[in-house]
Structure formats: C-alpha cells, structure tokens
Amino acid sequence: MPPPPSIEEPGKQSWLRMLYRYRLQFQAMASASTIYFAGGLKLAWCIFEKPVSGSEKLIDTHLLTIAWFVGVAAGAIMAGAFVHRVSKNISHWTSGTLLLLGGLLFACAPTSLACILSSCLLEGSAYGINQVQGLVTAGEVAHKHIRGLLVSSERVFLWLGICLQLFCTRLWFLYEPTKSYPLHLNQLHGTVVILVALCALACNTLYRFESPLLLHMQERNLAATCVMNRLQSTSYTSAELTQKHEECKQMLEHDAGRQTTWKAVRKSNSLPLLKVLLLRCYGTVSLSLPVNRTFVTASMTGLNCAINCVYLLSLCGVLASILGALCVDICGRRRITVICLLFSGTCAFLLAGVLRYIYEQISLVLLTHLTFELVVYLMWCYQAFICAGVSLISSVYMSEAFTVSAKACCLALVVVCEQFVQIALALLVFYTDFNEPHFFFIVGVLGMLLGILALFTLPETMKTSLYECLLKFNNVP
C-alpha cells in the first residue's frame, strides 16, 4: 500500500513554536530520559572510573566493570518479550523500581562486593528495559519534524549522566574529606541514583501517555484519537490527525499475515537490522574501556593532569551530542552519518599512527608531553564525530527501521550485541597484551568502510512518516 500523501500545514511554523506545540511529546519521554541519565552515571562508574569496592582482588574489579553490561543485556532480553504487549507505563515502572533497588543497595552497603555487584545488575536491567521501551515509544509518539530530536534524548541524557558522575568524583578527590568522614564515595553515587529513580517514577506517574500505535493494535481507536489530540496539542480531528490514523493502519497492515516474530524479522527486518547493528556497534566503541584507558594515559602526560582528566572527554561527548540533536532534523540523517563516519575513521587512523610512533620511538621523542597532547586532541575529535553523527543517528534509525511486530525484538538484539562488544573489549584489555595502535587502526578501517557503505545503503528518513521509513529501509533510493 502506498503511503498517504503529505499534508502541508497552513503557515510555516518556527522551530521554537513547533517545540512548544509538541512539548507533550517531550514530556512523554521524561521518565525514559531520567533513566538514561542514571545509565550514564553507572556507565561512568564502571568504565570511565575504576570501580570501588571493599575487595582488593583484581578479578572483583573486572566483575564490577562488566556487571552493568550483563545487566543491560538481560534487561533488553526481558524487554523484547513484553514491550508492545503491555502498556509502556508498566515498563517504566519496572525500570524505575529496579533502579531504586540498585541505588538503595549501593547507598546501604557501599563496600560489600555482593551488594555492589547486585546493584550493577539491577541498574543495568533497568537501563536495558528502558532503552528498548524508550526507543519504541519515542519513534511512535514523535511528530515527523522533531522525531530525530526527541529520540536523541537517549544519547544526550546518557552523556549528561556520565559528565555529572565524573565531575562529582573529581570534586570528591580534589577536596577529599578526612578518613573519619562517615560518607563513602559509593554512598554519594547511590544517593544520586535513588533521587534519579524517584524522579523517574514521579515522571511516569505525571505523564501517562501511551503509544497511539499500541492503542490501535488493541483496537482502542477512540483512546488513540484522544492521545493524538493531546500529543499534538489540538482538540479537533485535523487533516494531520487523519493522516496519522491512516499511517497507523498501514503499519499494522504491513505486518498482517506474519504470525510469528521470527517470520517478521526474516521477511522485512533482516536488512535494516544488519545496517543498524553495524552502525550501533561501531558507535559503542567510543564508550569502551580501551578508548578511555588510552585517553587517561595520554591526558596524564599531555595535559599534566594530577587527577584523572577523563571528564574532559565526557564534556566533549555532551556538547557533540547536543549539536547532533539540533542538526539531525535539519541536515538529515544520512549526510551527517557519512561525514562523521569518514572523519572518525580518519581520526582513528591518525591516532594509530601517533601511538605507534610513541611506542616504537619513545627514546627518540624529545617532547613527549606534546606528542601525548596531540593524542588528546585527536581523541576529542574522534569522540565528537562519533557522538554527533554515529551513536546519535543510530539511535534515531533504531526507532524508525523495524516493523511493529518485530521492533522490540530487533531493538533487544541490537542492545545485546552492543553489550557483548563492550564486554569483549573490556576482557581484551584485562587479559591480553592490548595493542592500542592496532586497535585504532582497525577502528579507522571500519569507520572508512562503514562510511562508504552508509552512503549507498542508508536511507534518508528526515521528516518522513514511520511507514515511509519502513519502505525506505528496504528499498533505499
């Protein structure tokens, strides 16, 4: 069935006026964004910092580093089983409750390895459930002109959480209290997580918006109309709402005849799944342990940091993510992705060359700190390109690429693969003689190849309906 013709609204609205009109769509994502923020806090604690516990064993530190990723994978698998089968509020309540329990364990037993490990698993599960549900909901409630900006909240709030955790840790060690001070650093982290969890639960209670597509699936057409009216700030059935109803019906008809999720994945989602999976896994490398370890080493020498300066890398991630979110609905998805893939690959190549020169010619390098300073600047550029045009755009594509019946399972599979990449890279750093120049050389090759592939295989989905996105992903113009 061909997509319905686009309907031009009378009078061109300014960008700020459009944001105000669709403000309830951002409120619908408030609970999910809060849990994304908590995920950033925990990711920074696991990867950007060295996990702190009462145990001094190296194996325990390794377990704490990867525990959150295991929890995220488990949460994504659970979400794949019930997202789009129950109300999104149930998913957000579950995520908020798990996050609250994890924060309580962290605050009450800050030096107990078992409690901290359990907390990481609980918070990871909360994030995994929320990531699948949040991306499904964001794509379905967003107006096509702001869908990229709305979905981008996932990466923006993740990086804001990372930034806050690293700044708090830096302040703690700059003004380190006396040994008799009753508050442990982990208790401070746990307290912040508890507050974030309570905020997420409160947002879920205040802003109870359901996906119109899910209501259509349940044949609750009147409720779907009411939700659409509220989300678009209109009290009448306009031509735009009529078009939205038709789009929902077309997306459901597109799934008709596919009785099983596996059949839906195999017939209409296998190619989009491969595209999004490659893009997402490449983007997750920038948040991995090897990248952060390299930056810590380079910044300590190149920037003369007496304390870990990795917060500067997180600040770069925040600014780049915000810039990408503001541009994604203006410049287009594919253009930004191709440019950032090629430039990130170039930065990775340069990093590999400089690091190899340092390691092989270290005795001949007269100004070592300047060479390491160059590494820091290259890593800032690499992180900026990845955050602005790879990780963020992959989130947008994840919300647009899949059919209704298979979307939750496809998103869960992508999230699980993403966590496996993180765990594999962490284990390589822990248990092998990790070679940074070779690592960044491989990353550079992948960036170049994916940039070329993206130019010919990724569709441009800016300002198109979800049904048009489905057609474009399977038939790239």
From TrEMBL:
Compartment list: Membrane
UniProtKB keywords: Membrane, Sugar transport, Transmembrane, Transmembrane helix, Transport
Residue ranges of the TM segments: 24-45, 66-86, 98-122, 156-175, 187-207, 273-291, 311-331, 338-359, 374-397, 409-432, 438-458
InterPro entries found in the cross-reference section: MFS_sugar_transport-like (IPR005828), MFS_trans_sf (IPR036259)
Protein name: Solute carrier family 2, facilitated glucose transporter member 2
Top-level taxonomy: Eukaryota, Metazoa, Ecdysozoa, Arthropoda, Hexapoda
Gene: LOC105231304
